């Protein structure tokens, strides 16, 4: 047995108690109490005083990322992004003006001249300006050259890439090939067409060795920010799910790989299409996989299925009640094969009735309204539970949404991506493309709590680097990158922010063995030189974890 002492140990339990010592036997927590009491009760225990001047918290949970999707991007793509990225030991600094963006693209083209295909990553139009096939042709027309958007939902190709990636051969049934007035590809691919092209012509070229090196970079990034558990929102997107699981299993056998519990779920559309468009076969496949693999504490399926309502907020591919200021038309993502947004409840029903959580990517206020319609329909079965509809991102929500939620028996839960307000809000105001109503609707975390929802937060890596502490800082302060306050009334408390990256993030995925520091729970904990309830919040913007433990072992 070991007893860890600290200045404070925040249990983040129901009463939010804290003490200064924790006894651990093997992988489990035995007891939390005052140090002198535990030493007297367990006189043979080894007392660890290394953290006696630090603060211990439940291990941070990153509830929405793409583990091997991020690793494959790290291996295949070169960042030219609006935020810093550290990949395989190299830091690529942020670029936030059109001039710097073009200049950096040209630098990357020269530096990586030996690559037969060069794909950059990180374009965000409001900051970097418009990017077209013609602009890419001017920079490099000699090889397939492409820019993957920061949202991970858009791919812009030069003419050579359009030809080599066989864009003209993509069938009309695959949505997302943007065409000109003559019906020819513009070189811009979004959503389904983008993912199809990326998997077949970019990610598939990454070697297993490069994948493992980049996976280590992904996990090291999480460890440095206190992450001990992560959940992949849609395994099988970047490669066949069997291959993803084999690579993740192999990674756990590598001694230098950071320890991290890895949960995952399937995307409904991917499974539905692979199961002959048969809803029952889709459920049976997912359910059998869950039952066969759920008892693995290191790599495991969570009891959840992933849907999409609308698209990426940073690309304006969202469904809103009011018209966009430039009158653009956007589309629902749940439109494929024989399915539409009106079949959402029907498609979700087998999972709802069998107590699965349903994660749904939802951004615009109209899309959120459609999700609540589905909850209303599903609730009539008399089955389900609070939080079973798990809203991902919660971009723009109006008052009507929260009024409906407050009156619901089965309330959805939410996982907010705080970086929208931090990085994008001021650029959206300058662009004046979103409906004006959206500017008072962005990521209303406190309104969600007031309506009875549980709220976690996420980075959605590779959209943003994994950093629960930075995400919590944004939700607590509502400050953007320039120091401006974005909807101050939606700031949440320190206590709710700490719960969002520990207790709530675990509960939303049914992970009842982690999330708090209590007797019988797994000994997953994070050590910080920071008192969450008292110290200056600004310290969180540059803070690294002093240590992370998974099952009582240092990561």
From TrEMBL:
SUPFAM superfamilies: Composite domain of metallo-dependent hydrolases, Metallo-dependent hydrolases
Pfam families (UniProt xref): Amidohydro_3 (PF07969)
Residue ranges of domain Amidohydrolase in the record: 55-552
GO molecular function, one term: hydrolase activity, acting on carbon-nitrogen (but not peptide) bonds
InterPro entries per UniProt: Amidohydro_3, Metal-dep_hydrolase_composite, Metal_Hydrolase
Name of this chain's protein: Amidohydrolase 3 domain-containing protein
């Amino acid at each position: 047995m070991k007893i860890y002492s600290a200045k404070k140990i925040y249990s983040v339990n129901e009463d939010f108690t804290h003490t200064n010592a924790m006894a651990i036997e093997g992988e489990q927590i035995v007891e939390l109490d005052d140090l002198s009491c535990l030493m007297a009760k367990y006189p043979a225990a080894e007392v660890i005083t290394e953290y006696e001047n630090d603060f211990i918290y439940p291990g941070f949970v990153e509830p929405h990322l793409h583990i091997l999707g991020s690793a494959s991007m790290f291996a295949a793509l070169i960042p030219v992004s609006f935020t810093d990225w550290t990949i395989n030991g190299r830091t690529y600094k942020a670029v936030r003006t059109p001039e710097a963006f073009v200049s950096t693209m040209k630098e990357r083209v020269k530096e990586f001249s030996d690559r037969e295909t060069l794909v950059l990553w990180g374009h965000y139009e409001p900051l970097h300006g418009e990017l077209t096939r013609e602009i890419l042709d001017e920079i490099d027309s000699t090889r397939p050259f492409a820019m993957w958007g920061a949202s991970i939902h858009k791919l812009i190709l030069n003419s050579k890439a359009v030809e080599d990636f066989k864009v003209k051969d993509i069938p009309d049934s695959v949505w997302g090939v943007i065409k000109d007035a003559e019906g020819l590809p513009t070189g811009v691919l979004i959503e389904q067409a983008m993912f199809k092209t990326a998997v077949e012509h970019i990610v598939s070229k990454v070697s297993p060795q490069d994948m493992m090196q980049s996976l280590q970079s992904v996990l090291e990034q999480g460890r440095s920010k206190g992450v001990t558990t992560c959940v992949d929102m849609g395994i099988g997107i970047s490669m066949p799910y069997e291959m993803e699981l084999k690579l993740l299993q192999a990674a756990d056998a590598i001694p230098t790989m950071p320890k991290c519990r890895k949960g995952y779920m399937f995307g409904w559309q991917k499974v539905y299409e692979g199961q002959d468009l048969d809803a029952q076969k889709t459920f049976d496949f997912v359910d059998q996989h869950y039952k066969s693999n759920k008892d693995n504490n290191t790599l495991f399926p969570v009891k959840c299925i992933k849907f999409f309502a609308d698209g990426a907020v940073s690309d304006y591919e969202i469904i809103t009640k009011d018209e966009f200021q430039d009158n653009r038309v956007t589309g629902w993502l749940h439109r494929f094969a024989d399915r539409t947004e009106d079949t959402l409840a029907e498609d979700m029903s087998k999972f709802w009735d069998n107590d699965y959580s349903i994660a749904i990517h939802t951004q615009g206020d109209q899309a959120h309204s459609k999700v609540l319609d589905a909850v209303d329909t599903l609730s009539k079965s008399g089955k389900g539970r609070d939080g079973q509809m798990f809203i991902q991102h919660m971009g723009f929500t109006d008052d009507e949404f929260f009024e409906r939620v407050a009156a619901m028996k089965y309330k959805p839960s939410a996982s907010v991506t705080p970086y929208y307000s931090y990085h994008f809000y001021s650029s959206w105001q300058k662009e004046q493309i979103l409906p004006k109503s959206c500017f008072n609707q962005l990521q209303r975390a406190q309104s969600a709590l007031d309506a009875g929802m549980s709220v976690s937060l996420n980075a959605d890596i590779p959209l943003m680097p994994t950093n629960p502490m930075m995400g919590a800082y944004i939700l607590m302060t509502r400050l953007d990158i320039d120091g401006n306050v974005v909807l101050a009334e939606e700031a949440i408390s320190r206590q709710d922010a700490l719960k969002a990256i520990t207790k709530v993030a675990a509960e939303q995925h049914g992970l009842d063995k982690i999330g708090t520091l209590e007797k019988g729970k797994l000994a997953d904990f994070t050590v910080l030189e920071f008192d969450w309830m008292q110290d200056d919040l600004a310290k969180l913007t540059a803070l690294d974890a002093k240590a992370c433990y998974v099952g009582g072992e240092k990561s």
